[in-house]
Amino acid sequence: MSKDIPILLININTTSNITAFQSIPISLGYIAAYLKINGFNSHILDDLEDNTLRLGELKQFISKHHPILVGFSAYQANIERIRLYAKYIKSIDSKIKVIIGGPQATFMPTDGLLDLKYVDIICRSEGEGVMLDVARSLCNNHSLSKVQGISYMEGDALYDTELPKGFEELDKYPSPYLLDIIDLSQKEAAMVITSRGCIYHCIFCYTPRASHFKIRFHSIERVMDEIRYCIKKGVTRFWFADPNFSFSPKRTEKLMDQILRENLKISFWCQTRYDLVNESLLKKMKRAGAATIAYGLESASKPILEGTKKNLDVERLPKVVKLTQSLGIDVELFSIYGLPGETLDDARKT
Fold first, then answer.
1. Are residues 89 and 70 in contact, defined by beta-carbon separation less than 8 angstroms?
2. CA distances from 180 to 29, 32, 33, 111, 229 (A)
3. In what order do the strands lie in the sheet with 157-160?
4. pLDDT (tens place) for every residue of the chain, 350 residues total
């Protein structure tokens, strides 16, 4: 079977305020880029609040391109919509395999497939390698048992395969920007990932467990290549989507220094822990274009925060917020209500 049979990836984000001008399907873009360098064409269809994917459009694509595999990034907010599309896809062509990955899927019990009647495969690892191996397996009519990092159903039996290791060097995953996977012509900002993973043990967060409590970095040059590319395409606003953008302050300084050295006129949003910044770093980030920094408050109650295993001193946060704002950088705070043991008074304190 030819490798040029397309793989369809569907980006669903209909429950947030993100518009088509703001939505960047970066995770699916990475998958599409990795598929591309390995000889597989793919296509990303958007299903957004202001640009919904109509069933007729989906049917037309399937009828024209005959994809062998359709992938979704699954979240709690979109899983029911995925059910709808999966059922519809199977009604058009029952031979098409449907795979889900992402936060809702990674740690889903395998017997969840019994409830997700029209989903064939759960991705348990990084999507790039899994999607490539599944595509190769389907094209060669091989058993899915050889594909690492998945759960699947065959007949009435459920199977889990061994987890793959993935790449230690993040640059081995090609850029969805540099390969022209993501069209920036109608976008007002670009999402860039400079690192993956987290070493912390916050009980409420998906990322540390999914990354096996490790952080891997793209090289500074790779990040700069993406920034330069986006600027050439007319985009100067960036969303650095790392879980902890300043996890390595020295590396962050190097990136800021390079942006300043090249005199790039950009603005950016990032998120980080408030124990990973200092005045010197914040000043340099401001000069390089930092417009907003998001910190994780989670809870203003010390006992509740300790229960999350976030290991932060909440009394330090107001000082960091004031310092950040004094430098002309806006601050966002993440907060969580309903944490274990939280009372109404705790919530009010937050």
1. yes
2. 9, 10, 9, 38, 10
3. 42-48, 7-13, 69-73, 97-101, 121-123, 150-154, 157-160
4. 444 568 999 999 887 776 766 788 999 999 999 999 999 999 999 998 888 999 999 999 999 999 999 999 999 999 999 999 999 999 999 999 999 999 999 999 999 999 999 999 999 999 999 999 999 999 999 999 999 999 999 988 999 999 998 888 999 999 999 999 999 988 999 999 999 999 999 999 999 999 999 999 999 999 999 999 999 999 999 999 999 999 999 999 999 999 999 999 999 999 999 999 999 999 999 999 999 999 999 999 999 999 999 999 999 999 999 999 999 999 999 999 999 999 999 999 99
Please give the Cα distance from 204 to 276 (Å, whole number).
Answer: 20
Name the token pair of 69.
């595999």
Give CA angle at 238 (233, 242), nearest 5°. Answer: 130
Domains in the chain (CATH in brackets) are 7-160 (3.40.50.280), 189-349 (3.20.20.70)
Find the Cα–Cα–Cα–Cα dihedral 267, 269, 274, 278, rounded to 10°: -10
Return the SS3 of 269.
strand
Distance separating alpha carbons of residues 208 and 133, to the nearest angstrom: 25
Q: What DSSP designation does 200 have?
A: -
Q: How many CB atoms lie within 10 A of CB 46?
A: 17
Counts of helices then strands in the chain (DSSP H, E): 13, 14
Q: Write out the DSSP string of 56-67.
A: HHHHHHHHHH--
Structure tokens belonging to residue 315: 């009394």
Residue of 61, 46, 83 lying closest to 7 (CA atoms) = 61
